[in-house]
Amino acid sequence: MQNIQIDATAQSVISLLFKDAKFDGFKVAKGLTKMIFRPLQPKDMESAYLPVSQEQGEFFYKTIVENEFKSIVEFGTSFGISTLFLAAAAKETGGKVITTELLSSKAKTAKKNFEKADLGDYIELREGDAIETLANFNEPIDFLMLDGWKNLYLPLFKQLEPFFHKNTIIYADNVNMADCQPFLDYVYANSKVYKSRKIHQGKGELIVLS
Ligand SMILES: C[S@@+](CC[C@H](N)C(=O)[O-])C[C@H]1O[C@@H](n2cnc3c(N)ncnc32)[C@H](O)[C@@H]1O
Fold this sequence. Notes:
This protein is α/β, with parallel strands linked by helices and 210 residues long. It has helices spanning 8-21, 24-32, 54-66, 81-93, 104-116, 130-133, 153-160, 181-189; strands at residues 71-75, 96-101, 123-127, 141-146, 164-172, 194-199, 204-209. Helices cover 40% and strands 20% of the residues.
C-alpha cells in the first residue's frame, strides 16, 4: 500500500481522542459489573470509547482512498474515532459516511468531534438503533464497517446485503468476541459469495465478494 497521509487537523483531533480513550479500562470494568444482574447493554458503556486502533483506522483510510470508495456506512459511532478516519478518506474521494449510534449522549459528543476535525460535511450521523436508522437505506455500499453491538452484526449485514456490489469491502471489528460467531458462520457458509480473512491480530474480519 502506498503511504497516504491523513489530514493533519483530523489526525490531531483523533490523537486527542485516543488520549482520552486511555481511561476506557476503568470505565469498561465499571460497566461490566452490571452483568452480574443482567445482560450487558450499550448504556453500560456510555462513557467508554471502545475505539478501533490507529492501525485499523489507517487501514480503513488507505482502503477507501486507494479504491476511490465514496459510499461508506458504519455501524457503531461511539465518540467518532473510527468515523473520523472514514470521513478523512471520504474527503479525499469526494464521498460520504453514514454512521449510526444508539446513545444520544455519544452521538452528541461525536458530532462535536466531527466539527472540531472539520469533517462534519462528510458525515451523516443517524441517531438510534442501526436496524431502524438504516432500514430505508437504498444505495450501493462501497465500504461497510461493523462495530456496534455484536449480536446485530448478522441481522444488519443481511439487511444491507442487497446494496453490496462486486467491489464492496466489509470490515467487522471484534470478531474474536463470542457474539460475532453467528455472523462469521453465515459468512463462511456463503463462501461462494464471500471471501474473508482475519486481520489486525484476529480482531478484524475483512470480507470481499467472490
Ligand atoms: C465499539 S463501540 C464503537 C467504536 C467506534 N466505532 C470507534 O472506533 O470509535 C460500539 C458502539 O455501538 C453503539 N451501538 C450499540 N448498539 C447499537 C445499535 N443497535 N445501533 C447503533 N449503535 C449501537 C454503542 O452505543 C457503542 O457506542
